[in-house]
Amino acid sequence: MPVVPTKANLMASKKSLSLSSGGYELLDRKRSILVREMMSLISVATEIQDQIDSTYAEAYAALQRANIVLGFVEPLAKAVPTDDGLDITYRSVMGVELPGVTLEEDNPGIPFGLYTSDSLLDEAFLNFVKVKRLTAKLAGVENSVYRLADSIKRTQKRANALKNIMIPRFDGDIKFITEALEEKDREEFSRMKVIKAKKK
């Protein structure tokens, strides 16, 4: 439905256009910041994944050597205590809550006796502890990436609505009202000329 061409509606449409344009700029800036943060976290996740892969390789190689030297080490593995010291913190980036997942940084003591194990098993254990810490860190980073991707999608949707629907609509309203008011002024001017001419 076309807007009624009045000066009040023209002012309201101009104000709405200004607010929509400002909102679009803010959303576009937010999207850029979130994309930059996400790209940075993706490179961190890739780096952590590489560390996990190489540490796993070292851990399994040490475990294989320990199995060869000590025999089957499953009974010794049962001596490893359960670790439930998971800690989750949050930081906010443009209103998006990003989790950081860590394990308590206490120095793990070797849970095997000197008589029943050797340095190969100790090396495998320490590498698996390192993998556990890295995996917790990776979980936080990947969760942050998913949250950022979701927020970027929603922000882009809102920005597109402003850019492609609201701003063109207000532009159209302003053009329509301006042309209608100008036409009205021209008619009024012509009418006044006719009246003056008749008076003369």
Q: Averaging pLDDT over every residue, what do you get?
A: 85
Number of domains: 1
Ends: how far apart? 44 Å
Q: Name the CATH architecture.
A: Orthogonal Bundle
The spatial strand order of the largest sheet comes to 1-2
What structural class do you assign from the helix and strand content? mainly alpha
The Cα radius of gyration reads 34 Å
How many helices? The count is 3
Question: Could you characterize the architecture of this molecule?
Answer:
- It contains three helices and two strands.
- The radius of gyration is 34 Å and the shape is rod-shaped.
- By secondary structure, the chain is mostly helical.
- The protein starts with 6 loop residues before the first helix and ends with a helix.
- The protein has one domain: Helix Hairpins (Orthogonal Bundle).
- It has a two-stranded antiparallel sheet.
